[in-house]
Design brief:
This protein has 85 residues and is mostly helical. The chain has four helices and no strands. It has a single domain, classed as ACP-like (Non-ribosomal Peptide Synthetase Peptidyl Carrier Protein, Chain A). 55% of the residues lie in helices and 0% in strands. 20% of the residues are buried. This is Phosphopantetheine-binding protein. It is found in: Membrane.
Amino acid sequence: MEALKQELKEKIIDVLNLEDIAVEDVNDNDPLFGDGLGLDSIDALELIVMLDKDYGIKLADPKEGKAIFQSIETMAKYISENRTK
């Protein structure tokens, strides 16, 4: 699970071009939206595409995405339970 969390941090920084954020700056339980990383709805769409492309997870329900994208911790848990790649 730790390797997956590390991978997620790297992918999020890369996919969303978060140039001024380092992997070490992202805590597992920090919120991804709002006060945490400060991501927005466009970033959420990018994360949905990344989940599909990299892990074979398709999100159809936006409410589901809101729960999954709370933190690195919640994303890693969801991916480990649902990935097809």
